[in-house]
Amino acid sequence: MDIVESIAKVLVIGLLFGAGLPAVFAFGLRLHAQGVGGENADGTISQPNPTLRALGYLLYAFVAAAIIFGLLWITRQTILYYFDIQIFPDWAY
Q1: Largest Cα–Cα distance of the chain, in whole Å?
Q2: In the 3-class helix/strand/coil scheme, how is the chain assigned residue by residue?
Q3: Is residue 53 packed enough to be buried (19+ CB in 10 Å), middle (13-18) or exposed (0-12)?
Q4: Using N-to-C axis directions, what is the helix angle for 50-74 and 21-36, rounded to 10°?
Q5: 50-76 pLDDT tens trace
Q6: How many CB atoms lie within 10 A of CB 31?
Q7: CA distances from 85 to 76, 80, 93 (A)
Q8: What gap in Å lies between CA 70 and CA 7, rounded to an integer?
Q9: Residue 18: its pLDDT value, please?
Q10: Which residues pair with 45 in a beta bridge?
Q11: How far apart are CA 21 and CA 63, in angstroms?
Q12: What gap in Å lies between CA 32 and CA 63, rounded to an integer?
């Protein structure tokens, strides 16, 4: 049963990061584009919306933080070995 449980965990994490982060980034792009304003495809003009732009930037920051966290998590042992810096000191290794 441990094998099935491990496969399920890998599947969920793979779906989350494989499809979830790009979806959040795409949603951030959409919010940012709507927040800029300008001429729409149908010829109407929309006013800039700073709230949508800020939400777009917030989603960009979330995706960037998730990527940086993932890279640090993957390289935590190497950083500990070469630089003697424990990045996640209270977490189990």
Answers
A1: 59
A2: CHHHHHHHHHHHHHHHHHHHHHHHHHHHHHHHHHHHCEECCCCCEECCCHHHHHHHHHHHHHHHHHHHHHHHHHCHHHHHHHHCCCCCCCCCC
A3: middle
A4: 150
A5: 999 999 999 999 999 999 998 999 999
A6: 21
A7: 9, 5, 14
A8: 20
A9: 85
A10: 39
A11: 6
A12: 14
The pair of structure tokens assigned to 82 is 């070469």
| Amino acid sitting at position 39 | E
- CA atoms of 87 and 93, how far apart (whole Å): 11
Q: What is the pLDDT of residues 28-54, one digit of tens each?
A: 999 999 999 888 778 888 899 999 999
Q: How many residues does the chain have?
A: 93
